[in-house]
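Design request, tokens follow.
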């Protein structure tokens, strides 16, 4: 699952847990949200690294020409 999906799933679990008084479900929801946020942050970092690598390759190709 994607990070945003995990975050939304966690919010739902947390809300249901709070409404039903199920502390375990609420805690699972909080954990899912945290996992989702971490996944999103990692994906942003990966995207930035890919962009930087592509830019470096393009600049190197331009210098060779």
């Amino acid at each position: 699952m994607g990070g945003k999906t995990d975050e939304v799933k966690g919010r739902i679990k947390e809300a249901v847990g709070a409404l039903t008084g199920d502390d375990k479900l609420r805690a699972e929801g909080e954990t899912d949200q945290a996992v989702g946020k971490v996944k999103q942050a990692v994906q942003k970092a990966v995207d930035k690294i890919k962009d930087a690598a592509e830019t470096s390759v393009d600049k190197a190709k331009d210098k060779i020409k």
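Comment from the thread starter after seeing the answer: thanks! The two ends are 43 Å apart (CA to CA).
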